[in-house]
């Protein structure tokens, strides 16, 4: 997202030539640059042994089809590390706190202007206790996950990057 007005004082921003970054929105009142903003999110593929847990979510904004399986994901909160967000989101959504999370790679999701940090999470023994946001969670083996995530671009990239990897 490119800022048009200063988020602090609401003045209209002007373009200022800034090194290699070209024209960057600048507030002449606050004397500060406002670089383009994007969201920081985590996407987490949770597994136990050779089984992966995928979820179906209620479609709050209509962008996620309710019959489609996806990975756990969510926004990183202020003052939270990506690793902490990955553990929190899995714990909130599945009711199981990962025993380990491992950074896999980062992905851009341009449609929603997100930078998604991808993790593999190892789940402990126990049953799911689903968040109200979820319709269902289900275990799949590796071959099934590849098929289920076919239409889900970032999740599929994450899965392809960790297929067969050991924590
Ligand atoms: Zn300002």
From TrEMBL:
Signal peptide: none annotated. GO terms for biological process: NAD+ catabolic process; NADP+ catabolic process. Residues 36-163 form the Nudix hydrolase domain. It comes from the Bacteria. Its cofactor is Mg(2+); Zn(2+). Belongs to the Nudix hydrolase family. NudC subfamily. It catalyses: a 5'-end NAD(+)-phospho-ribonucleoside in mRNA + H2O = a 5'-end phospho-adenosine-phospho-ribonucleoside in mRNA + beta-nicotinamide D-ribonucleotide + 2 H(+). This is NAD(+) diphosphatase. GO terms for molecular function: metal ion binding; NADH pyrophosphatase activity. InterPro entries: NAD-cap_RNA_hydrolase_NudC (IPR050241), NudC-like_C (IPR049734), NUDIX_hydrolase-like_dom_sf (IPR015797), NUDIX_hydrolase_CS (IPR020084), NUDIX_hydrolase_dom (IPR000086). Keywords: Hydrolase, Magnesium, Metal-binding, NAD. It holds the Pfam family NUDIX.
């Amino acid at each position: 997202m490119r800022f048009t007005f200063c988020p602090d004082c609401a003045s209209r921003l002007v373009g200022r030539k800034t090194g290699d970054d070209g024209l960057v929105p600048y507030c002449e009142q606050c004397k500060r640059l406002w670089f383009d903003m994007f969201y920081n999110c985590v996407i987490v593929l949770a597994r136990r042994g050779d089984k992966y847990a995928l979820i179906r979510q209620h479609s709050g904004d209509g962008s996620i089809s309710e019959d489609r399986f996806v990975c756990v994901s969510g926004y990183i909160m202020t003052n939270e590390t990506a690793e902490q967000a990955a553990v929190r989101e899995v714990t909130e959504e599945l009711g199981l706190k990962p025993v380990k999370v491992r950074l896999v790679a980062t992905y851009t999701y341009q449609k929603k202007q997100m930078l998604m940090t991808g993790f593999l999470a190892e789940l402990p023994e126990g049953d799911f206790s689903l968040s109200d946001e979820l319709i269902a969670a289900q275990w799949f083996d590796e071959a099934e996950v590849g098929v289920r995530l076919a239409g889900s671009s970032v999740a599929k990239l994450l899965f392809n990057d960790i297929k067969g990897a050991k924590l």
